[in-house]
Amino acid sequence: MLLAPQGSAAVEIASFPQSFERGCTASTAAYSMRPDGQIAVVNRCCKASLDGPEKVARGRARVVDRRSNAKLKVSFF
Q1: 43 strand-pairing partners
Q2: pLDDT band at 59 (very low <50, low <70, confident <90, very high)
Q3: Distance CA 29, CA 22 (A)
């Protein structure tokens, strides 16, 4: 994954559902570089329907596979 300094949106091919995504629709993830070299992650979704309240989860990620940069280990806090 190549990230521009201002950030990037990415398309997930596959992922394991996170607990905060239960009951969500229209999930998105935004990625940006942090000053410490890790990656900031902001996930958003709408609860129950597209008109439902927005839910936001913030986390950080690191690249797991340096050869392809295609796999991240994400921790939410």
Answers
A1: 29, 57
A2: very high
A3: 15
